[in-house]
Amino acid sequence: MNSNLNLSHPMSLQQLGWQPVFQQQLTLEDYESNVIARITAHHRSSYTLATEQGELSLPIHQNQPLMTVGDWIILDANQQFLRLLDRQSLFSRKAAGSKVAEQYISANIDTVFIVVSLNNDFNLSRIERYLAMTNEAQVESVIVLTKADLCDDVEAKCQQVQNLDPMLMIESVNSLDHTSVQTLNAWCKLGQTVAFMGSSGVGKSTLVNTLMQSDDQETGGIREDDSKGRHTTTSRSLHCMPNGGLLLDTPGMRELQLADCADGVSETFSDIEALTKQCRFSDCQHQTEPGCAVQKALESGELEQRRLSNYLKLLREQARNGATLAQQRAHYKQLGKMYRNVQSESRSRKKGF
Ligand SMILES: Nc1nc2c(ncn2[C@@H]2O[C@H](COP(=O)(O)OP(=O)(O)OP(=O)(O)O)[C@@H](O)[C@H]2O)c(=O)[nH]1
Ligand SMILES: [Zn+2]
Fold first, then answer.
1. Same domain, yes or no: 247 and 285
2. What's the CATH code of the domain at 165?
3. CA gap 173, 175 in Å, rounded
4. I need a surface site. Which of 51, 92, 209, 345 has the fewest CB within 10 A?
5. Which SS3 state, helix, strand or coil, does residue 116 take?
6. pLDDT tens, 149-191?
C-alpha cells in the first residue's frame, strides 16, 4: 500500500472512508451532478474538504448545520453546500461555561482505540468511563493496553479488563515496536476511520508514529512533504495511514478525557452524591467528621467501601486530568509561538537582514 497518499490529491470515496450505509442517503442527482465531500479540517472560517476531484475549501456559513471533521456533505456542481449526510457516529462535548451549547469533536469514526498503559495508568474504572464515552458516541472501541514490555503480569491485567465485558476487544502492545503494533492494523484497513483516546503519557503519539511508519519509509508521524521535499506539519485532521485507513487526530479528540465526564461521574454515583448532601458539614470530606452521612451508610452496609473508593478516585482523577489539560494547552501555545519565531527568523535571513 502506498504510504504517500495525501488527502489533498484526488482519491476514491472508499479511500476517503465512505461506508456503504451512506449510499442509501444519495439521490439520483447526487450521482449525476453533485459532489460528495468529506470534511478533513475545521478552520475558523472554512472547512477543508477531500473529494474525488481533490481538495476544496468551503466557507463556513451561518445557515449550514453545525459540522465537524469526518462529516460527509453534498455540494452542488458549483461547489455550493447542499446538505449534510446523517452521521454514523459523533463525539461531542459541552462547550466550556455553557450548559446547552454543544461542541462537535468528530464524526463518522469507525473504531476508537482506548489507550491505557499497563503500568501507572492501568485503571478499570477509567476504562469503564471511556467505554461510556465511546458507547455514547456509537463508535466501536478496542482497548489498547500499552507498555506491555514494562509489565510482568500482562495476562492477568488483560483478564481483569475482559471481566468488565466478555465481548470487549483487547490488545496489549509495546507501542515502540513496529511488529507488536501490527495487530491494530486489523481495524485500520482501507476506508476505515480510526482515532485514539486516552490519558496523557499512555503512548498515543508513540502508537500513531509507529503505525504511520510503513516498512520502506522512516519519516512517519503526521507530516507530509511540501513541494520542496521538506516535512511540514499539516493542518488537516484526517490522515491516510499506510494500511489504507484514515486517522482522525484533532486536539479535541486528544483532550476528550475524564474532565469532560463530570456529569457522567455524578450520574453514575448519584447515590453517593445524594448522601453527601445529608452530611452535617457542607465541606465534609467524608472521613472522620461527625454527622457524616456517607460514613453512616458505610457502617450500616447501605454503601459498599469499594464503590466509595472508586467514586473518590474518579473525582481525584478528574481534577488531575483537568490540570493536565491546562498544561497541554500551554504547551501547544508555546510550540506555536516557537514555530512562528523560527519562521520569521528564516524569512528575515532570506531577505538578507
Ligand atoms: N517502554 C515503552 N514505552 C512507551 C510505550 N508507549 C509509550 N512509551 C513511552 O511513554 C512516553 C509517553 O508516550 P507518548 O506517546 O508521548 O504518550 P501520549 O499518550 O501521546 O501523551 P500525550 O501526548 O501527553 O497525550 C514516551 O516516552 C514513550 O516513548 C510502550 O509501549 N513501551
Ligand atoms: Zn460526609
1. no
2. 3.40.50.300
3. 6
4. 345
5. strand
6. 999 999 999 998 887 778 889 999 999 999 999 999 999 999 9
The CATH number of the domain holding residue 285 is 1.10.40.50
| 215 and 266 fall within a common domain | no
Residue closest to 263 by CA, chosen among 94, 101, 97: 94
Give the structural domain span for 304. 260-349
Nearest to 153 by CA among 116, 115, 203, 118: 118
Please work out whether the CB of residue 149 comes within 6 Å of at least one atom of ligand 1: yes
Query: What percentage of the chain exceeds 70 in pLDDT?
Result: 76
Confidence (pLDDT) at 268: 61
What's the confidence (pLDDT) of residue 96?
54
Query: Is residue 148 included in any domain, yes or no?
Result: yes
How do residues 5-62 score in pLDDT, each as one tens digit?
Answer: 677 788 999 999 999 989 999 999 999 999 999 999 999 899 999 999 999 999 999 9
* Nearest alpha-carbon partner for 312 in 277, 279, 281, 273: 273
Position in ligand 1 atom list of the atom nearest CA 198: 19
CA of 94 to the centre of ligand 2 (A): 30
Residue 123 lies in a domain: yes
* Same-domain status, 111 and 211: yes
Please state the domain count of the chain. Answer: 2
Evaluate whether ipTM surpasses 0.90: yes
* Residues lying with their CB under 5 A of ligand 2, a single-atom ion: 279, 284, 286, 292, 294
Does the beta carbon of 174 lie inside 6 Å of ligand 1?
yes
**Does residue 133 belong to any structural domain of this protein?**
yes
Could you say which of 241, 256, 271 is where a domain stops? Answer: 256
**For residues 118 and 148, is the Cβ–Cβ distance under 8 A?**
yes
Residue nearest to atom 22 of ligand 1 (CA): 200
CA of 200 to the centre of ligand 1 (A): 8
Query: Does residue 199 sit within a domain?
Result: yes
Our answer on whether the CB atom of 169 is closer than 6 Å to any ligand 1 atom is: no
Tell me, yes or no, whether 111 and 221 share the same domain.
yes
pLDDT in tens, 277-335: 999 999 998 888 999 999 999 999 988 887 788 788 777 766 665 555 555 556 555 55
Q: Which ligand is nearest to the CA of 283?
A: 2
